[in-house]
Amino acid sequence: MTGTSYTVFGYKGKQVRDNIHSLDLVSAFSHFYQAPRLAEVYNIGGGRFCNCSILEAIRLCEDIAGKKLAWTYTEDNRMGDHMWWISDVRKFRQHYPDWHCRYNLKDILVQIFQNNADRWI
After folding, report:
1. What share of the chain is helix, strand, coil (3-state, %, to 5)?
2. 8 A C-beta contact, residue 89 and residue 43
């Protein structure tokens, strides 16, 4: 959104990642803090509720910003990169059933854009 070109590495831009709003992460911490479970390990992320491919994220950012973003594609995959990564939050949800992500991907990206528009536009 700043005009600086972004490089998409490999997988035709279809690599998938989940996303989580910082307030949803803080909410997860709060649930754990209020009822800690000794020695438990959890995956926390947007899970299936909040995920997208790189190309989907670019399109959504373009829709939000109302302009095309500058980006290029290179066939080379980043070393160690995963084609698909979505956090499995089922264990945490089982232990803390009142927790859930409140912010979807569009909510997150709109908020990022609105909070930075004065610097980007």
Report:
1. 45, 15, 45
2. yes
Q: Measuring CA to CA, which residue among 20, 101, 109, 98 is closest to residue 64?
A: 109
Other CB atoms closer than 10 Å to residue 67's CB: what's the count? 12
Residue that the structure tokens 């005009």 belong to: 3
| Its pTM surpasses 0.85 | yes
Residue 17 one-letter amino acid: R
Four-way CATH pick for 6-120: 3.90.25.10, 3.40.109.10, 3.30.200.20, 2.60.200.30: 3.90.25.10
Angstrom distance (rounded) from CA 118 to CA 20: 24
pLDDT at 120: 76
